[in-house]
């Protein structure tokens, strides 16, 4: 009789734990489930999310704003016509960029951190990328702070670390201990009565404790809005990694390459993008449609626009973007640590 009671209690505890886990889904989990059914698909799979810029990817994904994010922002600003980039080499032989402002005026489409990167550094004309970190006015630090403020304003992260935990961790631990004690007791009973049902009940309580404790682990620091932004970013990442040459229009290949390159580098898909562009241009050339890949934002040291091989350009640009500043990375946290 005792064995039957323990069996029933264990199964009831396990069923209750499963019900709690399903009922206690966070708002972010509900939002992610809703997004995955395809209700919020972007209009085009190659269209970036409207409220996200390449320089905000790092902050959105891991809660930190790094030098890499700021370099992606500079590249994005160049692609949008605010800057020109001239690849050059420092005295130590390292590749870097000479950055120059174009005549395109600053307008309302710019976010705060983009405005910061387009103003103070260029008050005296051209600037080398590797000199920005040594600028006494600390434009990179100002821009990093502005990115953090922009991301916080969008409400992508929970602001209180305590809100990412729950009481279920403590309840689960208590149930787990009770389950282990019950299992040990029923193992002794099994040896005496040869009835295994009580052990099954004890193991059911143990499983219930594990399930409840899992609800007490640190939850995602993202809010439902943050989960939505993450999901849309993942959709663009998948589109870039799966990009096919026929998705690139020959007549606008340069514009498409420029628009997507900051995103592709941010997602590690620059080779895929460049290969698709090169392959489509080569395919068009075989049919008599010769189009050069011209990039107005990328110039040579002689002042000429750079054209030619997208793969070579993407590799060289990505090398500068991904290189750590002075051998180390600088980052500023956006999300509250768990």
UniProtKB/TrEMBL annotation:
<protein>
    <recommendedName>
        <fullName>Predicted membrane protein YciQ-like C-terminal domain-containing protein</fullName>
    </recommendedName>
</protein>
<feature type="transmembrane region" description="Helical">
    <location>
        <begin position="168"/>
        <end position="188"/>
    </location>
</feature>
<keyword id="KW-0472">Membrane</keyword>
<feature type="domain" description="Predicted membrane protein YciQ-like C-terminal">
    <location>
        <begin position="47"/>
        <end position="274"/>
    </location>
</feature>
<keyword id="KW-0812">Transmembrane</keyword>
<feature type="transmembrane region" description="Helical">
    <location>
        <begin position="195"/>
        <end position="214"/>
    </location>
</feature>
<dbReference type="InterPro" id="IPR048389">
    <property type="entry name" value="YciQ-like_C"/>
</dbReference>
<dbReference type="Pfam" id="PF20990">
    <property type="entry name" value="DUF2207_C"/>
</dbReference>
<keyword id="KW-1133">Transmembrane helix</keyword>
